[in-house]
Amino acid sequence: MSSKENRQLHLNLFVTPVGHHEAAWRHPDTDVDQLLDFSFFQRLAAKAEAAKLDSIFLADRVATSPSAVQYGAIGGYEPLTLLSALAVVTKRIGLIATVSTSFNEPFNLARRFASLDHLSGGRAGWNIITSGTDAEARNFNLEQIPEHAERYERAREFLDIAVKLWDSWERDALIRDKESGIYADHHKVHELNHKGKYFSVKGPLNVSRSPQGRPVLVQAGSSQDGRQFAAEHAEAIFTAQQSFDEARAFYGDIKRRAAKAGRSPGHITILPGICPIIGRTEEEAREKEAKLVELSNPAYSLIMLSNRVGFDLTGYPLDGPMPQLPVKEVRGHQSRTNLIVELAQRENLTLRQLLNRLAGGRGHRTVTGTPTQIADMLEHWFAEGAADGFNIMPQLMAGGLEDFLELVVPELQRRGLFRTEYTGTTLRDHYGLPYPENQFAVKPASQAHY
Amino acid sequence: MSSKENRQLHLNLFVTPVGHHEAAWRHPDTDVDQLLDFSFFQRLAAKAEAAKLDSIFLADRVATSPSAVQYGAIGGYEPLTLLSALAVVTKRIGLIATVSTSFNEPFNLARRFASLDHLSGGRAGWNIITSGTDAEARNFNLEQIPEHAERYERAREFLDIAVKLWDSWERDALIRDKESGIYADHHKVHELNHKGKYFSVKGPLNVSRSPQGRPVLVQAGSSQDGRQFAAEHAEAIFTAQQSFDEARAFYGDIKRRAAKAGRSPGHITILPGICPIIGRTEEEAREKEAKLVELSNPAYSLIMLSNRVGFDLTGYPLDGPMPQLPVKEVRGHQSRTNLIVELAQRENLTLRQLLNRLAGGRGHRTVTGTPTQIADMLEHWFAEGAADGFNIMPQLMAGGLEDFLELVVPELQRRGLFRTEYTGTTLRDHYGLPYPENQFAVKPASQAHY
């Protein structure tokens, strides 16, 4: 197996404080102080940067509950706060934060990402989510989460405004002539005067144009609405895919939709999640896996799964089948719920078996093996049209992250599949994305203009 | 003159990228790249910390306009982004960010400040503002800024929720017992179930209790509504006071209101703004002042003043009197507008003279002199019941900040008025504030409990 042309894969590290496995905080190697220890995140980012990863990424959820924190390592940093701090102790790696369009105002969000992009010298990315749970809605003046289609309608208007705000300062608007006292060319700083269904925003933004023009736009929804939104707007996609066939089908679908929307399919980097457990031998890897299963708490896993699918599974026998979910429209995490139900049916899993499968990555693909086996799998998906790279989700941060960076990344580099040096300075450079055009700029016919 | 007891004054540095004078960016010593140069802010914070200042502070306004950026150095960092980054390159100095209650959600705000408080080891402060301009309202779905009383009503509910969110995790809620798998005591993590006029928030917060319990609460409104709000809730107050008599009256009023509200007046630190221009001789100081006046642009100053008082002053003759403002309720910056009108009337200033007086600090007290003269003034206000300390607003950052830190601070230290070493680690420690009680904690009768 080898990749066609000189195509290089992209690797994003999906950061959690202790690891993606639900029981990671109970592992002997985990220091539970990691959750709020900035120096831990600083070391982690430095390692990922030394391995030349494209980016690090933080997910987000704007709710928790007393029952969830009873068992889960919850209660750490808000993503943009942490990435703002990491921006000034790293130099090259991209910094992607998740922020919901359902519970924020476009002006605030555009401003914070523009600030992060300035602070990091052009390394900011925004993972656009619409949020999917009633628990989150109840922290923001609602009784339940709005319908799927309505959330995406709001997200489209939100993104449209955010992009206009980022474009509201042209790249060459700053003059800063002390002699004349002219700070900016006011013809190149634009009001939006947006009035829409959800928002009215006058503009301009109060942050000047940032190094990347705007953050890299990332998307993670895999429902029909989510796919279409991603095909039209996303520059990178995080996705949960259980099998090669599903991943390839998803990959093809997105690239076709993108082409249909008039975009270059090469400008959407598709990154399925991979939750590895790595051993120098298969046996060592299996032992590591068994240790995490042993530390798992089905009571907690059931709460997590119940929250995820929006149906209370507590009380169902663990060694019986996954119960039939009531037929209703899934308002929340539609595609992930479908993935979980299909996984249980396809492999005929008991509830306990399903919980163990989900414990390592909440529906993302788990893989246990040697560095060569894991590199083989990544290369297969990459070379055969199922991925442009991967969203790396170590089940255990302590040790598991290093295993990937020190054992798998060098193997991918030896195969010529992954960079050994950064070739650019911005996240757009790393992902091979163009600098965005500015919708407000007047382009002289003879001149390339930003 | 000497202070009674061993009372020490408090010094906050009000940070702007170039200086508080409107023309600071045009000064030859100013590097206009400062606006977005993190290393500049890092050096500035390091200097303020080396001088043992209590805190640094960033103001905020969520709008600008093409006409404002034509002349003004505008377009820098969102405050919490910048302070999050500064948190990890400083050790002791407090970090106070302004965030408006009118254009945010309590859950998002509480979470970000809890994150900053964790990140900084207990050095976060929140300057609570309600925002006062239509230009800001128009970036957040409104046609005009809500009435003064309505903004404060929303602010009260907002603050009530934010405090409940910060209290939603008790100080000893975290158990983190790997053996049993219990991460937190779910009886010590509380839902709020708040349902009010403006907000419904279920809680709990998804960040565990931060080192200070909650950020230090700062307030800057000086209207009747603002004073009452401050007396009931603020732990530090930034205020614009033109004269000693006004400052003393304000100081007395706030302390009386606080006592009446059942609070200890010692737990509100009142910090009038001071915009110094410092020379080793009076002549040198006057020359520095003249240089800034020379660089001022009345056209820009008029736009700024018009925005501030909510009335278009452009076109009025600069050498005539300040025109009568139409009699109407001031919706926006009520107390500052009154201060400006009274200043013009009391001193019988032409519009040009008024603009020059305001250019150095937008209505805050400007003072030009030698280190001894400035220290005398600060000591007088401090010793005679007009201030607990000062909000230092250098008219020029390049040089002006150093003048204050290197010439005035040592003079205050020689007089025994200002610390020569930090005695605590948190912003609450610096301001002499108690650790806040938790409204959800059950207090055993015999035991002090947080």
Automatic annotation (TrEMBL), chains A, B:
GO terms for molecular function: monooxygenase activity; oxidoreductase activity, acting on paired donors, with incorporation or reduction of molecular oxygen. FMN binds at residues 60, 98, 148, 152, 222-223. The keyword Oxidoreductase applies. Coiled coil: none annotated. The keyword Transit peptide does not apply. SUPFAM superfamilies: Bacterial luciferase-like. It holds the Pfam family Bac_luciferase. Residues 33-384 form the Luciferase-like domain. Keywords: Flavoprotein, FMN, Monooxygenase, Oxidoreductase. NCBIfam families: FMN_nitrolo. Belongs to the NtaA/SnaA/DszA monooxygenase family. This is LLM class flavin-dependent oxidoreductase. It comes from Paenibacillus piri.
